[in-house]
Inverse folding.
């Protein structure tokens, strides 16, 4: 890149040959007002704000349209220039609403910033009322307030030349121009890909994101990609979806592996919060992210990620991890890579925790779990199976520099009134474990599951598969509000499982040892207050159900007792601070044992955090990040896809074709982050000019 | 190049007594703003703003600093707009503002349009001497602002009149006329035809006080 020199307002600056004058000035820290110009778009010189005078030229020129030349002498603030700028801005404001404070872009608006910079308000000119501002309509994703549009044309340009979509244009009706989709179609009927580029470049409040789509608690660059933001491990979902689309499964898996330790298992059983927050949900249905992950993992023949894993030299320090579930194994894996010697103590005969003993085999086969554990183990984790640690004292003399409690939440939790040992009542977590171990007791002809979450359905479906004639799920929630995944509910119904919604258990009729029947009552609603569960019952709606077996799927809790040697909260949870430390120095806790039953992916994320915190505690840098796939510059040009807004979700893939179709539905929210940000005049960048010396 | 629009604007005939320079400029700017492709601010907003200001002047709502503002606006369009059509429209108007400064000033300061073309500058009335009560005008008026009946001298309610001039065109007697600042004496309500004496005709326009205003 050849550098050339020029003088702007007396400052000697350097510019790149071929660059436009406006960008050169902005880069050098000299602010020239501009509005229709955007660094990613072709300049058009239509707003007249970036006007400047160039020595030797009789007329004012638009700096965005002028290419820099060696020795150019430029003035950006002459009287003539100011006159043109002021008038142009006033003209734009003549038809712009004056109620800035009622606009959602208030204080974050380029137009407003320009008004402040130039000291222009609505004044000399006549107000102009435009008619066609009501034509363009909002939809679920994009809010249009076109009365605020100043027709700078950026949205049209970004859609056409940057995205290659061309859904927007300057239209004309009754001799008045306005911006809308071509042919005034609804956005869902147009070629719009809902990428949000138009929102990103709009300098006013005319085109905005619909409120509520993006989280307000996260920084903008995270919030704009909701799937990645809401994934507890922040997996780079849009990137691996794109790679899967291109058939680069190994690269896709590398992206997944950067954050997740059990991708194949997650492909089957992840609770996929990413899908719940997927922006496409507002259009029709979310992307089948979990299925895409599974498809990528199962089609990755090369496993290139393995060659790129970052490994540190041994640092001679030892860490014990108590519990070989997803959280503990994840922490162990990253700690081993950081050079620690790690012993994992697992009380069961298999590692994997809930993956091995909680989730029924029909949902996730043991082979997959074993394989994933082996992959982690290969890094050099020492796993001690059948090693129950019931007190920290047992590890006291083994010379560990730090210990991590990752025992999970493996005890059932019933409503307190039902804490009685009946022969034919069992907690869901025990039921699942026994089923997975093949040690299940006699169930009888009718099984009732109390609780309508995913675990409840695991139990019900397992019972049904074992040949129980009548299986019922009783839950407080209405059908619509049920906590279990939709696909679980559908499958259960297909298998002939009854679901009794909006019911609560009133009493259990027993003969000391055995439950005979249950009395249920209909409820209109329920809530949890500090007094516990509060019900709004329908009087006189009691029904009696006979059952041979009752399974409580009403929650889980850790099995820690005071004897373990750390401070507990809420009965059996490990008390941790924000660094995941317990009250005992060097003892950390992660996963369900520290925050309660959540999900496997949450446990993995927690395990990663634990590894970071332990490394920092032991004097490391806390950096466990891996770059397993070197990101390439993303192509902003996404082009047109026929009927894009109406493409339906494909739940499961039977072939590459279906996988391709589903990946194509992705809105690629992350591409928006690549659009350059326009710096306001108050930006620190403009505080000092980057001058070059002669 | 944003737009390569060109437009041949009709020339203004200065000698035509049925035309007015301000009215002509309203039309030029109206045409320009309607033809604008919308891409450039001086063309899209500039011509519209100029049209808006001239329209105010034509309606008798001009402000004393309007000429200055208009000149600045047109000057900027003429010099800096890349669209040839907008530039042409601006130079035509600019030239006419300079050349006919008096007429523009009359419009703004005295609300007078010499040829009584600009609608804010005159009212329509029915000459009671000429009206024969035929009723054609009454039916032609889209705003129902004419009162009258068979064999009655018709009267225009100037408050309601939109000056579409439809009545002027249908009146077989040429009885419907324009009045500027000086208003003739006419009946307030319809009266039978022939009830207006010769003498009253002579009074028209003569008894009203001459107004002198700068």
């Amino acid at each position: 890149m050849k550098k050339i020199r020029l003088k702007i307002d007396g400052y000697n600056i350097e510019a790149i040959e071929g660059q436009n004058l406006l960008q050169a000035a902005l880069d050098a820290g000299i602010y020239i007002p501009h509005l229709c110009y955007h660094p990613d778009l072709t300049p058009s010189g239509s707003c007249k704000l970036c006007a400047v005078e160039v020595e030797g030229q009789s007329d004012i020129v638009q700096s965005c349209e002028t290419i820099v030349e060696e020795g150019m002498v430029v003035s950006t603030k002459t009287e003539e220039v100011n006159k043109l700028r002021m008038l142009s801005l006033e003209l734009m404001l003549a038809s712009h609403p004056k109620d800035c404070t009622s606009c959602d872009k208030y204080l974050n608006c380029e137009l407003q910033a320009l008004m402040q910079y130039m000291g222009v308000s609505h004044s000399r000119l006549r107000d102009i009322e435009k008619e066609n501002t009501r034509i363009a309509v909002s939809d679920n994703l994009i809010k249009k307030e076109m009365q605020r549009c100043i027709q700078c044309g950026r949205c049209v340009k970004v859609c056409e030349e940057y995205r290659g979509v061309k859904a927007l244009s300057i239209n004309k009706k009754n001799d008045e121009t306005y911006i809308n989709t071509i042919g005034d179609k609804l956005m869902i009927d147009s070629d719009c890909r809902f990428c949000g580029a138009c929102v990103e470049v709009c300098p006013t409040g005319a085109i905005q994101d619909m409120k509520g789509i993006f989280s307000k608690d996260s920084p903008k660059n995270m919030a704009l990609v909701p799937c990645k933001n809401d994934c507890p491990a922040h997996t780079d979902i849009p990137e691996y979806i794109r790679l899967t689309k291109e058939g680069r499964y190994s690269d896709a898996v590398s992206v997944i592996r950067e954050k997740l330790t059990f991708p194949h298992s997650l492909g089957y059983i992840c609770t996929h919060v990413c899908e719940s927050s997927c922006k496409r949900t507002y259009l029709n249905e979310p992307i089948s992210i979990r299925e895409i992950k599974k498809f990528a993992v199962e089609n990755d023949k090369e496993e290139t990620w393995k060659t790129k894993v970052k490994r540190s030299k041994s640092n001679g320090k030892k860490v014990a991890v108590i519990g070989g579930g997803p959280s503990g194994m994840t922490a162990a894996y990253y700690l081993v890579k950081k050079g620690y010697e790690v012993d994992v103590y697992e009380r069961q005969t298999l590692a994997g925790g809930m993956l091995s003993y909680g989730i029924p085999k029909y949902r996730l086969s043991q082979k997959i779990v074993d394989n994933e554990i082996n992959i982690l183990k290969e890094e050099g984790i020492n796993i001690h199976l059948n090693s129950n640690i019931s007190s920290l004292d047992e590890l006291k003399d083994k010379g560990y520099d730090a210990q991590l409690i990752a025992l999970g939440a493996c005890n059932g939790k019933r409503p307190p009134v039902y804490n009685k040992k009946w022969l034919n009542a069992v907690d869901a977590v025990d039921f699942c474990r026994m089923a997975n171990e093949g040690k299940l007791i006699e169930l009888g002809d009718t099984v009732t599951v109390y609780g309508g979450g995913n675990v409840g359905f695991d139990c019900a479906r397992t019972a049904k598969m074992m040949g129980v004639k009548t299986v019922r799920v009783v839950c407080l929630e209405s059908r619509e509000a049920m906590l279990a995944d939709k696909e679980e509910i559908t499958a259960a119904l297909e298998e002939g499982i009854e679901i009794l919604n909006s019911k609560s258990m009133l009493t259990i009729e027993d003969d000391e040892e055995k439950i005979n029947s249950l009395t249920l009552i209909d409820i209109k609603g329920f809530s949890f207050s500090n007094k516990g569960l509060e019900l709004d019952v329908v009087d006189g709606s009691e029904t009696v159900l006979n059952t041979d077996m009752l399974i409580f799927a009403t929650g889980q809790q850790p099995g820690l007792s005071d004897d373990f040697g750390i401070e507990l909260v809420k009965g059996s949870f490990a008390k941790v601070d924000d660094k995941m430390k317990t009250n005992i120095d060097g003892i950390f806790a992660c996963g369900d044992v520290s925050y309660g039953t959540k999900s496997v992916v949450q446990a993995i994320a927690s395990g990663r955090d634990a590894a970071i915190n332990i490394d920092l505690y032991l004097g490391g840098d806390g950096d466990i990040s891996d770059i397993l796939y070197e990101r390439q510059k993303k192509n902003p040009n996404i082009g047109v896809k026929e009927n894009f807004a109406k493409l339906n979700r494909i739940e499961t893939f039977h072939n590459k074709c279906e996988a391709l179709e589903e990946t194509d539905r992705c809105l690629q929210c992350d591409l928006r982050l690549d659009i350059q940000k326009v710096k306001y005049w108050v930006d620190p960048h403009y505080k000092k000019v980057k001058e070059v010396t002669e | 190049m944003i737009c390569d629009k060109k437009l041949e604007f009709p020339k203004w005939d200065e000698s035509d007594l049925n035309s007015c320079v301000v009215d002509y400029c309203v039309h030029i700017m109206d045409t320009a703003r309607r033809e604008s492709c919308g891409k450039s601010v001086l063309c899209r907003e500039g011509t519209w703003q100029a049209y808006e200001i001239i329209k105010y002047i034509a309606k008798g709502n001009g402000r004393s600093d309007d000429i200055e503002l208009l000149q600045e606006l047109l000057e900027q369009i003429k010099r800096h707009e890349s669209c040839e059509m907008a530039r042409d429209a601006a130079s035509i108007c600019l030239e006419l503002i300079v050349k006919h400064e008096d007429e523009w000033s009359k419009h703004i300061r005295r609300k007078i349009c010499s040829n009584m073309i600009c609608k804010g500058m005159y009212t329509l009335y029915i000459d009671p001497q000429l009206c024969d009560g035929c009723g054609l005008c009454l039916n032609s008026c889209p705003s129902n602002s004419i009162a009258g009946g068979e064999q009655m001298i018709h009267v225009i309610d100037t408050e309601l009149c939109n000056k579409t001039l439809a009545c002027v065109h249908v009146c077989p007697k040429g009885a419907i006329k324009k009045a500027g600042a000086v208003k003739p004496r006419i009946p307030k309500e319809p009266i039978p035809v022939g009830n207006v004496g010769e003498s009253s005709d002579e009074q028209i326009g003569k008894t009203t006080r001459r107004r002198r205003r700068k």
User: Anything to note?
Assistant: The longest strand of chain A covers residues 515-529. The mean pLDDT of chain A is 95.
